[in-house]
Amino acid sequence: MTPTHHDLLIRGGTVIDGTRAPRFDADVAVRDGRISAIGRLGGHGADTVIEAHGRIVAPGFIDSHTHDDQALLSQATLPFKVSQGVTTVVAGNCGISAAPLRPGMELPMPLSLLDSPDEGRFTTFRAYLDALRARPASVNVAAMVGHSTLRAVTMASLDREATPDEIAAMQALVEEAMQAGAIGLSTGTFYPPAVKATTEEIIAVGQPLRARQALYVTHMRDEADRVMEALDETFRIGRELGVPVVVSHHKVQNTQNFGRSQVTLPHIREAMKTQRICLDCYPYTAGSTMIRTDRGMLGGRVLIAASQPHPECAGRDLADIAREWGVEPDEAARRLQPGSAIYFLMDEGDVQRILAFDDTMIGSDGIPVGESPHPRLWGTFPRVLGHYSRDVGLFPLETAVWKMTGLTARNFGLHQRGTLAPGHHADIVVFDAATVRDAATYETPTRPAEGIDAVIVNGAVTWRQGAHTGARNGQVITRTESSR
Ligand code: ZN
Ligand code: CU
Questions:
Q1: What would the pLDDT profile of 308-360 be if each residue is shown by its tens digit?
Q2: Is residue 196 situated within a structural domain?
Q3: Is the same domain home to 246 and 270?
Q4: Are residues 104 and 225 in the same domain?
Q5: Ligand in closest contact with the CA of 67
């Protein structure tokens, strides 16, 4: 006989199951952290019942691109994620990971962006994952090891190629991370700590990925004038390692490159015929990263998000600060370092084209530091659901949900997550398709999204009626688990 009593029953909602299949009306039941039944469960009961009439019941969103590595420990309730319906984050992007590091070592930008001084340093990847297991966060995490972090911990100076000995040392650290459960290796050759890394260095360091079919994920060397060369380098690394690649936050930036997604996307599509490639994207025309002084990055409006020497400048335009100080913008930027800024460098047409590309996952690239972060930290997922799917009509809601759940779980190999089916982990979001919207703007960047009714992580109700319940039921999703 089928048991009819559950821990949780979400009753009367419309299910969008994360596979891109059309929605259907059904109740969803949860027991012991798993989905125990989906269907018309009229005679069933539960300890907790959530009424979902007129609401969408979907798999919890998977943020395919985050920098939550330290926040998972230092801000473990992650309200900026849970309030959007996110139940899993992929951490360790852009070459930056929280492990392995040495206690007391100096961290170059942008590695220092993630470091929180009151947190201990993790000398092995296993120690980092063990800390996450000992002090669970409110969301699940699948973590990658970052190549820039490996360079910083291995090399005495970062302004050159790695020597054969250093490559061997980094390779051993990738192997340790893989054994501990890392799902891939990320690089950030755009950033100073890895600019001098050659393609050959990355291929050599990434060798341990091969046997496990772990992912190669990259913030490419160039997302502007030389974006095509950067794509080809990325594809080559994936081919030579024989592993799937993820092009992080795909974009074509600076005015002279506006429209070039009409070239990059067909190029990616063509390469996909012979190797596994996917990409992620955030739904905004501004990016955010460390404060830089190069003219290429300072060509558009620049908003300071955080500055260590000048915290009072957070939320202000670089142009205004420079005028006030009587200096050129690049000099003002230099004085504001280290810190992070928001750069308006993209074209709306490109953003929409990349978002709508079939194999594009949604990833926030949110940076969880400071009072004035990029609004993507609090708004990415509701913005895709509300603004881009419902209001702009870029794609149906089923496709929007798929791009933040089933597609992402498939690409990253997250076992039994990202789709609603009996036996799968009970990561669930209940939202109102008519009202869901991002409320975070460049002016009010930390305002929680609207229309998210309930968020359930491994069966635990974590967000309900506009408030965090305090639940911290997230799990570490490892490679071993995901390859099962
Ligand atoms: Zn990046
Ligand atoms: Cu990133």
A1: 999 999 999 999 999 999 999 999 999 999 999 999 999 999 999 999 999 99
A2: yes
A3: yes
A4: yes
A5: 2
Tokens of 463: 């967000």
Which domain covers residue 330, as residue numbers? 296-342
C-alpha 21/C-alpha 17 separation (Å) is 7
- pLDDT in the model for residue 116: 63
Spacing, Cα 190 to ligand 1 middle (Å): 8
* Per-residue model confidence as pLDDT tens digits over 20-36: 999 999 999 999 999 99
**Judgement on whether residues 130 and 276 belong to the same structural domain of the protein:** yes
Query: Ligand 2 mean position to 83 CA, how many Å?
Result: 20
Tokens 């933040």 correspond to: 404
CATH number of 140's domain: 3.20.20.140
Asked whether residue 305 falls in the same domain as residue 249, the answer is no
Q: Do 311 and 245 sit in the same domain of this protein?
A: no
Cα of 293 from ligand 1 centre, angstroms? 17
Is 32 among the domain residues? no
The number of the ligand nearest the C-alpha atom of 190 reads 1
Q: How far apart are the first and last CA of the chain?
A: 29
Q: What is the pLDDT of residues 362-419, one digit of tens each?
A: 999 999 988 899 999 999 999 999 999 999 999 999 999 999 999 999 999 999 999 9
Report the separation in Å between the CA atom of 292 and the middle of ligand 2, taken as the mean of its atom positions.
15
User: Is 207 within a domain?
Assistant: yes
In the reported structure, the alpha carbon of residue 368 is separated from the centroid of ligand 2 by a whole-number distance in angstroms of 11
CA–centroid distance, 266 to ligand 2, in Å, is 24
Residues 88, 213, single domain; the answer is: yes
**Nearest Cα to Cα of residue 470 among 48, 51, 78:** 78
Distance CA 362, CA 341 (A): 21
**Residue 47 alpha carbon to ligand 1 centre in Å:** 43
Judge whether 89 lies within some domain.
Answer: yes
Ligand 2 center to 470 CA (angstroms) = 27
β-bridge mates for residue 28, sequence order: 10, 38
The total number of structural domains that make up the chain: 2
Q: Do 348 and 215 have their domain in common?
A: yes
| Residues ≥6 apart with Cβ < 8 Å to 364 | 63, 65, 66, 86, 282, 376, 377, 380, 381
Are 337 and 254 in a shared domain? no
159: which residues sit within 8 A by CB, 6+ positions away? Answer: 196
Which spans in 260-375 are helix H?
261-271, 318-325, 329-336, 348-356
